[in-house]
Specification:
mainly alpha; single chain; globular; Growth Hormone, Chain: A
């Protein structure tokens, strides 16, 4: 008969948080769809807020979009490193990233206004550099989410192509819905504050759900009598 492998007095061990089961696939997809929804809310709202720095013209739009894309690219590299560095806690890494985005989101408009007061009459290259510095953390965090989740799913199903395609699909669908909602619902009804606060609340909800529903769980500790038993 099989012996109990638990060491007497040992602390409960955390199970690896590798995803398993179809319901987890659905939940991860839903969370990443919501993440894309929030990201496009931020981008549209922040872009409108940044028009006060740049003015509204082709150069300003190009600079803002380029800054976002650069941050997402750097974040994707960082996300790949994090996924490899913490293989047993990738979902918790994803949760922490979403929480970080939420914290920045809650204070983002105040940060933009405060930084904007320092940019009066500065040349455009300096404004672009300062804008990148301001948005380095949130855009990199947004870019890091995809490689973290792709690596986690691929480690379970063994197919990185399927994992990437599924996650990129749901995230893009969420982004499209977020762009529509921001333009036709959130901004007209709640203004910049309403759109950004909604996005931040979504990110915080994602972080909590990921940590509570998908994070590592601890095995229950055995009683002293059970620990000593050897069937």
């Amino acid at each position: 008969m099989e012996r109990n492998s638990t060491v007497p007095g040992a602390a409960p061990t955390a199970r690896p948080n590798t995803l398993a089961g179809p319901w987890t696939d659905a939940l991860v997809g839903l969370l990443f769809l919501a993440s894309g929804f929030a990201a496009l809310n931020y981008q549209i709202a922040w872009q409108r807020a940044l028009f006060g720095w740049y003015g509204v013209d082709l150069d300003s739009v190009s600079a803002i979009v380029s800054i976002f894309m650069l941050g997402l690219g750097v974040g994707a590299l960082a996300g790949g490193w994090l996924a490899d560095r913490f293989p047993a806690r990738r979902i918790m890494v994803f949760s922490a990233i979403e929480a970080l985005i939420a914290v920045f989101g809650f204070f983002s408009l105040e940060i933009i206004d405060g930084a904007g007061a320092l940019l009066y009459d500065l040349p455009l290259p300096m404004i672009v550099a300062i804008t990148f510095a301001v948005f380095l953390i949130p855009t990199c965090a947004m870019g890091a989410t995809l490689p973290v989740l792709v690596t986690e799913l691929a480690s379970r199903n063994g197919n990185i192509g399927v994992s990437t395609g599924q996650l990129y699909y749901v995230n893009t669908m969420g982004a499209a819905a977020g762009a529509f909602a921001a333009a036709y619902l959130l901004l007209p009804m709640g203004g910049l504050d309403g759109a950004v606060m909604t996005a931040a609340a979504i990110n915080l909800t994602i972080a909590l759900l990921a940590a509570l529903a998908l994070g590592p769980r601890r095995q229950p500790s055995l009683s002293p009598a059970t620990q000593g038993a050897t069937p």
